[in-house]
## 1
Amino acid sequence: MKHVVLLVASLVLFVGSLYPLTRIRGQQPPDLQLGFYPPAPLAKALSADHYHFLSQVILLNCMFYYGSAIERRQAPNWGRMYDALFTSARLDPYNMDTYYLTQAVLPWEARLVKPTIELLEYGLAHRTWDWYLPLFLSFDYVYFLRDYEKAGYYMAKAAALNPRAGYFYTLSARYFYEAGRTAFALAYLKELIATERNEHIRAIMVTRAEALEAILLLEQAVSAFQERYHRLPRDLDEVKRAGLIDRMPVDPYGGTFYLDNQGRVRTTSKLARPQG
Amino acid sequence: MTRQLWSFVVIAFKSGIRDRVLQAILGVGVLLLISIPVVAVFSMRQVLALAVSYSLSVVSLLGLLLTVFLAAGVLSRDLERRTIYTVCSLPLSRSVYLVGRFLGFALLLLFALAILSGLTAIAIFILDLAYPPDVPFSWWNFCLALWFQYWIFVIVGAFIIALSAFATSTFLPLALSVAVYFASFSTEAVKYYTESGLGRVQTAPIIRWLAHVAYWLLPNFSAFDLKAQAIYSLPLDQRALWLTQLYGVGYLAVLLVLATMIFSRREFL
């Protein structure tokens, strides 16, 4: 009888304390839920051969932390979240989930573009077969930093790793063109056209190359005009009247070439076929 | 001598199979491994990789527990029950007894890890079908990772037995061997760091010397750790694998020879 009374009393104490404790723990600030992690080399040494799983645990904690902060309409502590993701990546540089969460959240909401790029480049050095990482990097450079040259470089890397996505090639050539490296973009596409066996992708690349050839011709004529008259031409007709081009090249996308207000050669088609 | 050796192996194996601790750890292992699919689906992009990572960590953790509990009892039980005196009075070499008991422990550990690995493989097979990864899963890499993990525990077990050969308490060999286990995953990284440009500047010569000594004295478990290759199906360096296996055999042989030398001279009073 004494044992039964003691057992019941113990259960009441246990259950009675667990309910309020659970509520209090659930209301803890998300920062405490994220946890504190030692530097990666120390964490690796302390975890023996479990550091791959520890990397995943840290990543899962980051996911739950971010979700909790969003649910409570609180701004996450981005610095601590980045540090945790950084540690996760250092523990297991092949862990794709870390880079995926980083790309999905940090450059958009925290404006941590350069740290995101640094982390993705670290991942790319290890996940050498993964075309998602150079794709993410290309996107970040073009969307957030307007660095078309770097965007083109990484898109070309993504294209080399995923040749089935034919539009990666033409997109990288576009980025090189936007970076003012039309000749490079054209040379890059011609190199690929020579070896591409898929007719559909080849046709897309040929069209882009024809457009870039026309643009390069016009850019060279504009440069010649500038050298001769020490000013930019008002429009491409002035270049033609100056005798620097015989006739206006044809845009294979059906647009019309023009000069923008910075003297760059553009086309009304924006190097794309009309939809529909 | 071979028959005597084999007798000790069989005795050690049979008594270990009946050990409640072994059965309890295997039971816990089954429960943990059943949770593989539950844990794995939390991954955003690599469900199978998380499953493999989690399962290898579970097998590693349970393997360490099994090694500690099984190896600790190899000599200590005979010493506590005084059955060692009966064994030593028989016309057989103490070395045969020690090596036979060690091989029995190694066989028992292999049996236990095979059960855990088999359950892991079932879960991974199902998840591979449900969530095929971008890079096809390599079963060969997975099996090799488990094999070399087994060798880590065989070496740790040999450490425990070697220390038990002269220690008078059970706790000291256990504590030292677990410390060796953790330290041995870091010796390679520390050595490479002290040899690097930054390391040479930041570390004193005595620290660099100690790092080298630790690297040579302690087993380099980093070489046996193939988890990354198993999780992400990374290419294997065949030459490094063969050298690692030879290194493991050599290190184990040194431990066992030292253990038999010490045990042969021990006085049981």
Note: The radius of gyration of chain B is 20 Å.
## 2
Amino acid sequence: MPSVTALGALHALGSANNYDDGQQPGPGLSLLQTLLIYVGIPALVFAVIWVLVAASSSSRGPRYRPGVGWWSAPVWFNGPAEPDAVVGALGRPAPDSSGNTVRGGGASARW
Amino acid sequence: MGVAPVPAGDAFTARQQDDVARSIRIAGQQAHLPVSVYVGALEGDSRSSAQQLHAALGAEAARSVLVAVDPASRRIEIVTGTEAHRRLDDRAAGLAALTMTTAFQAGDLAGGISSGVLALAEHARTPPSLHTDQP
């Protein structure tokens, strides 16, 4: 009979704090620590990824986007020696002195 | 507007300029097709403006192909000279223009120009050799 009461008391003790053998509860997290771990660290990871993405795109400089427009000065690759005079005369009806162009062909496209 | 305008002179990065210049060089060396690429506004009638630009190539104009891209009005004009037209018909020029518009729609200006120039070089037929030394 006394052994049964001892068992019951032991059982009551075990269910009171619910700890296994060798388990030692820590002091618990303060509010600041909880915020740092569950909000601060994810925000930091987020910021690092954002910085990596933004740095790679800003290093390439501004890029052309369809529909936004174009403000840049004209560029002519493999053009004539004095491109500025030709580009400046664009839009004005110029006499087509060389017949090379008109008799050729080509293509037009829009996007 | 939210999107920074492309400042003057910074239309292409140095690497993009290298890419375009390399494709022009490949077209010149492998297909013997001089290609000139103009990126800028085509005032007024874009076709006649592009033809003016092509005529400005001078003595090389007959052999040359001019690719004029106007990003503001979203137009491409490909002008072939008389000799270049023999090697590059309008269908091939249209295919190259299609290659470029596909890339331009995605915002890839330099890549579209490079691949378009390479497409022109690929479609340029070699001129028939005249065997004048044979009977």
Note: The longest helix of chain B spans residues 14-30.
